[in-house]
């Protein structure tokens, strides 16, 4: 009995899917009449219809529609009704003899467009409304079948009503149906004065006039008052807005809560799954999150007494995350840029790590950046204990997918993934290599440091700069020494001025007092670069300012009073640069710091 109730609820959901699909078909047919073939609005209607068609066929299977005069029936439920004969699809099918039409799984896009062309011709009065059966026969669709009656039967049916004898009646026996042709015409009796003439009981043309109880040609035989009309309109609106889907959902939830047997629980949970998938297809992430959370809550409560039911619920939830279903979610995200990314992340996290593969596929299909960030956030949370699926995606042919996966690995920051990130560090796209540098910076291990230092030899200056700044965030002498080693390398002098400046800044941000004598000497007496003393002096002063230790501040304060103008200007410029940077980080700072104040500020970072 419970299985029958669940079946009824699933059937109700399928009926709604088919009805929505037919509404989309009618809307697209109207768009075919209104717009030119290359109009973007028409393309939008076509895309929506195709998405609904594939979804319906995938979830329901073959769609079999029985044709009545003004209705199309699915599983004996009306999913389309239109009594306007000029525009009713059902009436067009019915009058042309079609009694059933079936759309099979595997329906191809060109077949769907062909059906629209057939319906357009069949309902276009300007083209003479060609016969539907002929148009369908000419197209010879592979995945569309129809049942029709012959023209002779159609003509016979339109001129007379067939009489079927009662069940059990003897063929050829019984009282014959009265017929005027079999009764000889008699003269009308002559009335005798004072007597009335009684009609015979077998006279099939009585003189008493018979009028129909209602004649369509008469028109409206009664009218409603304005208040009655408003009341009826309100009642119709209330009925139309009645949330039947919510009522069905509550019934399924109640059944799911009461289930005790694993098989019945799985059937009810599978029905609940369809509601979640329907919410996703409609782009309602809030409802999808709520339903998924509710399913987990019911399963958790049931598992207190039946531990095996939690595993069955997880099985259903994993099914939601299957690639074949989540892959259909990309067009929905692309069509709704206003969807809350937080809801998207939360939904995917609720599904769990089994959806990671499908989410990685979505990264290559979603257009909006905020949605890609939400997908990355979900992966970072779901895969924190299992990164193998992410590492396997580093071989993807799309650079942007690899960059996003590298970002996620950096967020997780597991030791042991450094060698996988080294592959990304040698990727042909510079954006992937820069992301790999940032990801390695989040992992604290000797291996990650070694790979960061190796990035100093990258062919692209932006990658080398990113490696220096990332390593500087370690804020220890080991990092500073590695950067200083790059500065002393012979090829460093051939780097551009901005890159050399960034490397000295990185030394200052990561180093400590052991570097002060080296920088002081470079500031006052020049350095290792031929003809580049003034630039070198400026870079040394900048490194000391960013170093910010008491010993470094002491050197800067002393050189502020130097008799050598280039030294003074270098120190003043360096302090001004650091002050401006500090001001941007602390807009509330009311006074500019002196050299000593700046040193204490930078030293605390």
From TrEMBL:
Superkingdom in the source lineage: Bacteria
Region (Disordered): 167-188, 576-605
Listed Pfam families: HEAT_2 (PF13646)
InterPro entries associated with the record: ARM-like, ARM-type_fold, PBS_lyase_HEAT
Signal sequence bounds: none
Example GO molecular function: oxidoreductase activity
Protein name per the record: HEAT repeat domain-containing protein
Species whose genome carries this gene: Eiseniibacteriota bacterium
């Amino acid at each position: 009995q419970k299985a029958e109730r669940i079946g009824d609820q699933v059937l109700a959901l399928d009926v709604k899917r088919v009805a929505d699909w037919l509404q989309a078909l009618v809307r697209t047919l109207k768009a075919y009449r209104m717009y030119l073939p290359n109009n973007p609005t028409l393309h939008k209607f076509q895309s929506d219809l195709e998405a609904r068609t594939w979804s319906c066929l995938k979830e329901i299977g073959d769609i079999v529609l029985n044709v009545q005069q003004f209705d199309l029936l699915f599983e004996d439920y009306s999913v389309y009704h239109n009594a306007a004969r000029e525009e009713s699809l059902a009436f067009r099918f019915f009058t042309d003899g079609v009694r059933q039409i079936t759309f099979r799984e595997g329906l191809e896009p060109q077949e769907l467009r062909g059906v629209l062309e057939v319906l357009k011709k069949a309902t276009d009065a300007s083209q003479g409304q060609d016969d539907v059966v002929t148009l369908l026969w000419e197209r010879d669709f592979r995945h569309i079948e129809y049942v029709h009656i012959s023209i002779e039967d159609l003509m016979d049916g339109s001129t007379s009503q067939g009489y079927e004898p009662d069940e059990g009646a003897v063929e050829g026996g019984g009282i014959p149906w009265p017929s005027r042709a079999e009764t000889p015409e008699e003269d009308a009796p002559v009335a005798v004065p004072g007597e009335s003439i009684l009609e015979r009981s077998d006279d099939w043309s009585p003189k008493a006039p018979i009028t129909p109880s209602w004649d369509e040609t008469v028109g409206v035989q009664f009218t409603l008052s304005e208040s009655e009309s408003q009341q009826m309109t309100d009642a119709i609106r209330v009925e139309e807005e009645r949330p039947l889907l919510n009522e069905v959902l509550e019934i399924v939830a109640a059944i799911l809560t009461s289930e005790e047997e694993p098989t019945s629980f799985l059937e009810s949970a599978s029905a609940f799954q369809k509601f979640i998938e329907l919410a996703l297809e409609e782009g309602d992430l809030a409802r999808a999150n709520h339903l998924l959370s509710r399913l987990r809550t019911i399963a958790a409560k049931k598992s207190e007494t039946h531990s095996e039911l939690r595993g069955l619920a997880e099985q259903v939830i994993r099914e939601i995350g299957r690639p074949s279903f989540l892959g259909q979610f990309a067009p929905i995200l692309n069509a709704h840029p206003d969807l809350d990314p937080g809801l998207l992340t939360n939904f995917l996290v609720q599904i769990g790590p089994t959806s990671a593969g499908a989410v990685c596929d979505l990264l290559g299909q979603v257009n909006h950046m905020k949605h890609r960030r939400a997908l990355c956030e979900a992966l970072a949370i779901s895969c924190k204990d299992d990164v193998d699926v992410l590492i396997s995606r580093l071989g993807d042919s799309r650079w942007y997918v690899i960059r996003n996966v590298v970002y996620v690995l950096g967020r997780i920051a597991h030791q042991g993934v450094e060698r996988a990130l080294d592959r990304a560090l040698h990727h042909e796209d510079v954006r992937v290599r820069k992301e790999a540098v940032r990801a390695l910076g989040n992992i604290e291990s000797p291996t990650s440091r070694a790979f960061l230092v190796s990035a100093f030899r990258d062919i692209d200056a932006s990658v080398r700069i990113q490696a220096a700044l990332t390593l500087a965030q370690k804020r220890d002498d080991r990092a500073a020494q590695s950067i200083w080693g790059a500065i002393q390398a012979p090829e460093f002098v051939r780097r551009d001025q901005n890159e050399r400046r960034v490397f000295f800044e990185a030394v200052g941000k990561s180093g400590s007092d052991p570097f002060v004598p080296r920088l002081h000497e470079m500031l006052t007496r020049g350095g290792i670069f031929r003809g580049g003393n003034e630039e070198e002096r400026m870079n040394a002063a900048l490194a000391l300012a960013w170093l910010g230790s008491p010993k470094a501040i002491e050197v800067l304060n002393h050189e502020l009073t130097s008799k050598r103008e280039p030294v003074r200007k270098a120190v003043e410029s360096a302090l001004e640069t650091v002050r401006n940077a500090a001001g941007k980080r602390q807009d509330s700072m009311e006074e500019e710091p002196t050299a000593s104040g700046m040193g204490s500020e930078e030293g605390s970072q």
